[in-house]
Amino acid sequence: TQKNELAKFFYDFIDRVDGLQGALVSDTDGVPLLRVISKDADMDEEQVRTLANTFATASNQASKLQLGENKSIVTFYEDLIVYQINYLPVIVTLFGSGDVNT
Fold it and tell me: Which of 34, 23, 17, 19 is nearest to 80 (CA)?
């Protein structure tokens, strides 16, 4: 199925990028459609679910700057980097360790 092919793509992508720990594809409401997490991931299920909702909130706030449509957001935490990309009608979230190859 297409979902299996997409999951395989993300697993292969995670294997190729040092420090990348997972990918999440969700709809614009933050509902996860596909979740691919490496066995080495430092995040638990609750944290991954929360990521799905952060883009909508952050994007909404960024749009108030009136600089045009927000296409992506990169968030740096102490030990984590989150890259969220707007591919409406879906949001792609990639996350990895603080030293992931950005």
Answer: 19
12 vs 35: CA distance, rounded Å: 14
Residue 97 sits at φ, ψ, to 5 deg, of -65, 165
Say what the pTM is. 0.83
Q: How far apart are the first and last CA of the chain?
A: 30
Cβ 60 vs Cβ 41: under 8 Å: no
pLDDT digits (tens, 9 = 90+) for 84-100: 898 888 889 999 887 77
- 81 pairs with which residues across the strands? 76, 96
pLDDT digits (tens, 9 = 90+) for 12-21: 999 999 889 9
Which stretches does DSSP call E strand in 28-71?
Answer: 32-37
CA distance 71 to 91: 10
Tokens 């609750």 sit at which residue?
Answer: 46
